[in-house]
Amino acid sequence: IFVLSLGLRKKSSFKRQDIWKTDLRNFENVVIFGVEQMMSQLEEKLVTELSENACVIACRFPLPNWKESLSVGKGIDTVWIYEKRTNICSSIY
């Protein structure tokens, strides 16, 4: 609805897919509703597949080794926003 209100419908698309079966190279923004046990493995996939300018939004659980650009909320309602370009080096080690 927000995208529609801004007139960005033709420039946006939303996909609901299995993140493990999806090649993320064509995505600039990724929203994750994950579980704590998968976040470390997911970091590896994000580093490998996302472009340098990609943005990741994680809901409920943070990426354990990435530094967030912003976090909003508390507890299970927390949302973390990450920019890949600021986390490339720290995720490799």
From TrEMBL:
> Which key words are in the record?
Methyltransferase, S-adenosyl-L-methionine, Transferase
GO BP field? methylation; regulation of mitochondrial ATP synthesis coupled proton transport
* Xref: InterPro entries: FAM173A/B, SAM-dependent_MTases_sf
Question: Does the entry feature the keyword S-adenosyl-L-methionine, yes or no?
Answer: yes
Its GO CC terms are: mitochondrion
GO molecular function (one): protein-lysine N-methyltransferase activity
Please report which protein family the annotation says this sequence is part of. Belongs to the ANT/ATPSC lysine N-methyltransferase family.
The protein depicted here goes by the name Protein FAM173B
* Species name: Parasteatoda tepidariorum
